[in-house]
Amino acid sequence: MPDQFSIQTFRITNGCKGNPGMGEVNQYLSICELDKGFLTWPGCPRLSLPGILLFAGFKDSSAFTMFGDLFEEDFSFISNNHCGKEKKSKSRESEPPAPRDFTNLCGIKNQGGTCYLNSLLQTLLFTPEFREALFSLGPEELGTLDDSRKPDAKVRIIPLQLQRLFAQLLLLDQQAASTTDLTESFGWNSHEEMRQHDVQELNRILFSALETSLVGTSGHDLINRLYHGIVVNQIVCKECKNVSERQEDFLDLTVAVKGMAGLEEALWNMYVEEEYFENDNLYRCGACNKLVEASKSAKLRKLPPFLTISLLRFNFDFEKCERYKETSCYTFPIQINLRPFCDQTEMDDSEYMYELFSVIIHKGGCYGGHYHVYIRDVDELGNWQLQEEEDGLIEEKALRGAENAKETGNPLAVLKGILSEEEAKQIPVDQLGQKLLEKKGVSWNKKYRKQYGALRKYLQNHPQIFQLSPDGNKVSLKETHKLLFKLDSHKQNLESPSQKNDVQWNCEKNPPRPRAASAGCHWFDLNDSKVQPIKEKDIEKQFQGKESAYMLFYRKAQLKRPPEARGNPRYQIPEHLLNEMNAANTELQKKRAECDSANNGIDLHLHLSSCYKFHNGALHPSLSWKESVVDLTIDRRKTLGDLRQTVFQMLSSWEGDMVLSTAKPLPAGLHLYQVLDGDELTLDGIGLAHGADLFVWNGKEVGGTKVLTGPEHEPVVLNVLRLAEHNEGGKGQHFSEAQHVFSSSTSLGQLHSALAPAGGIILKNGSGADREAKNWEVFHEEDMKETVRSVGLRDGCSVLILDSHDQSFVNVASGNLTAFTYDISWLQVKNFCGVEQEEKHVKITATIETVMADIKMKAIRELQLEEEMANESCLRPVSGNGKLLSPVPEDYTVKEAELKMGSLLGLCRGKAPTSTQLFLYFMVGSDQNYSPEMEIVVDETASVRECLSLMLEKCGLSGDNWHLRRLDWCYEAGEALSQENATLKELNVCRGDTLIITEGKLPEKGFLKIPIWWLKPSSHKKHEENAQDQMNGITWKMEVLQVSAAAALPEPAHPGLDLCYAGRIEIAGEASLEDLKMQALTLPCCQEQVVPLPSFLRAWTVDSKRPGKLLRDNKRRLSDYRLGARAEVCIEPLQEEENLGPHELLLRVQMGIPGERDYSDSRDLVWDISKECTTWALRQRVASHYCLPVDKIEIAKYFPERFEWLPISSWTQQISKRKRRKKQESLQSAPYHLKDGDIIGVKNLLLDDAKDFSTVRDDIGKEKQSQLALEKRKSRQERVQDPFFTEEKFPMKPRKPEVALSINVGVFR
Fold it and tell me: CA–CA separation, 1212 vs 1225, rounded Å?
């Protein structure tokens, strides 16, 4: 995850109950809590932020206080900071960066999407030769960063920033460095830093930028010197042995992953295997001047010191038309010998040996992910430790802890051990308690006081061991016991020399340095800011999977590092950078010291008893809070004794005993809790946090009044309610309400005596503000001994007091109210009945239990309408866009109607449905432009047939050639209501649903209703005339299809075939394909066709107005084809009988007309693919069909939906014999997906050498597609701008366009 995010501005509208004064707030938003897309603040409901990704990285702590104390209770009379007891949040920039962890290596911060950059920079840093070559370039060659702002200065800023970043990574004591300055030198903005890019692309672009930046310096050849290699391509003539060579330079090698087991196989395939030119694919030799047999190969001629290998893990799936990541297993060695792949092999083996030192890993898919890197620490700059050693240290620490626990169980031995180490004769008793806490990690009060009493008393009870001063404030160990203790310790050391110093007082603070690993085994995982050691075998986990190796970096094994470089991060770093880093480290230490002091400083609020008085169950200031409270800042590591002494010094006029008690502001006032005791304890140890409140008093009374302390005596504010006169005009006027304060220890009997009259009763509301009848409970006589706390009464709880005459509301036996009034709110009612008068709306008071009929009557009276309107009108909710929704049954309550208070209702003409009736919308056909939406009320027990009859009667239609369908989510005719005798309730038809009346009867169960099309050949030269005839010939059936003739005319598959509509047939699913053909011949459009047998007909499914799947086998049942409810079939007449087998592919081939962009009429070609379905086999079959040589034709497949031709390449002619034996990819797979009915264009190279297969018709079709796409785009934009079509109805998540990576470099030539 990125370390920092950019600030985004959001407009937040307050919707929190109880804060009506808060309007819209524009602010840099501080995210307090982001939980599954919801934003929350304390005291407010969650605010939903759907579809918004929040990136929050705040640069100003004021963003955290944007709402001030809006949601906090007002205790300003006590303190100016009581809302939170935690330390105030500080700006991230105000705190120094964290120091390095135990690995002593520095990570790099992610700027949002720069993990790919971080991984490559760490690899370059841990390439010592690159790092030192960069450091060797001084200011006299590169310039200085101070001169970068000068207009005429030529400062090579990229290498300067890279030097500075490397120095920070090596020397600066921080957990992670920032690349902001470096990316700014690249010319990147914040958008570029948030984009993800490919690390292979960055590697080449960064090297190019460095080469350009270093032109004219001694480092001009830095990249070539370290990474440049040469590959030589050779072609050897078999006859004259002439060798033709061509050299290629490389900085990195790209190797295939797909189909390869590992790196060695990929290199063998590239640089060992040869390609042969033979048979029809010969090579023209320059020396022989003729076509000859030859072999082609490639070899590595020059090896660089550092070999970079990029793995091609991303490929393109032509079948799915999308990219994908290759996650198969791909191994690579730690050491590799490149001799077999080299052109020159006579040198020593050491010249060819390479060692892996960096693996950049990609986790994710081809459209996004995360990079991190495994690196071998060549110079041993980091601290590396195996997990087994860590486990051993943990186990050893646990054993020491167990021994310490045994020792600390005896306080006598512990105190003797502490005092025996003290050089001073006597130490204060308070200091002894502090040393116990520091050295053993436990305090006397927590560990021993309960069993042994106070520390001073324990020392006094052992006078034979401890010697106390006359005043009892200092203590020492008697000399005899000190000597015995030292002799005993020495004896244990002699008996167990291996365990000497095994138990140390401060062993955690000085962990043992990890043992040095063997050379070459220092591997670390550098994942942005995080650095952790790994084992060498962990690299094997990156061979495969979504998280796998992506780039490999090898170094020559003969490259040795000088001894002075090992473990020395300052090696070869220029003096000016050393000075800069030293100054930065000094500043960091200073800031950390200041931050440590600030973090450990806590603010305490001292409340002085002389400024308070006790009344109404709590403490209240007698003066203003400024005069009652004294603020004190103190280090949390100081003791309670230090605090007490500081308070004494501040309050010089204080007389008598001083007791410090923790206090807490409550709604009733200030309440006291625990008395602080144990002056030797630290403030952190006793739990004092930032912002804590302390009460300074004598421990007994305040202003002459005894004060009860502790949680059991907390004051509780109760809302006491009594029934009042009903007021219809406003909300919450049913009660007279008053607040009373009682102690938590007050009994219910005392509460009853104080509040209820004689004969009265008390009821508790268990749900707080919700005052529904079911939540009120009666306190019975047996409850009177319970306390306020034990019955669950807390601040803000309500109790209801009922007099004797009000008790008719209560069933005392059950303990609940049987009748009660609800909170009153209001609904808006707008008049839609009037035509001539202006539409008015009124507010009607109501509760959630108000019946809708009463609301209607009130609205009629308020609108001054006639009373007779009640029988002719209904109430209908109005949606946000002004649409009238289905009427609400009048016997429903507001709650049953699911109406929210404040909703808008429309008073409309028409009778409202009852609770057993359904209000439905319906239309004829799914096109709303031609058929308006109508409304109807039917019983939910009505059958589908009865409902259809009522709808037809209402819209003026007749006949039985209709059926009902639901409206699907695309606002089109969806599922048919096929069970005509089922009731609407049984089919889950709900109030407000929309049904569509569709023409045509539903077929009986087990029958299919299939539209039949006729596929007939036509001359491509008369295509336009035939198309017009086709239009005229099918106009008669447009009523059945309910579409226009222009829309019904299908686009021809190609100029040689026309598709015209014949009619519909109804046939059983168990019938055969032969039966379907026979029944299709009975249609009026087909009777004039002369067809001797069904085998002279070919049947296709219709897909996108074109022939789709070929239906084979006349005896097969239609149900076996799984045609579906909306399947269509087209019939093609044949000149001869046909019965295709399962392995025969039917293609339509057409020969190109020489000199023209057109083709002759297509011919049917049956191709047996039982043996193979390859390019070579298809070329042979097409060539034999036209009696042409195989090498004199070119073929291509036509894609009519795109008006494109895809040449079927003859690449198999040029592959080697060895590769030809491998199974070639089938043409039925990507990218050709060859199937029945596909069009194959053929070019005769003897007469026509044009390689372009497209026609003029294709150009026109593409132009029409472009215009249609442009119109759709405009329509989509208009629809998005229309407020009715919100983003919620049409969600679109476009993928961000890919942007090329670039680095801006100045000109230094």
Answer: 11
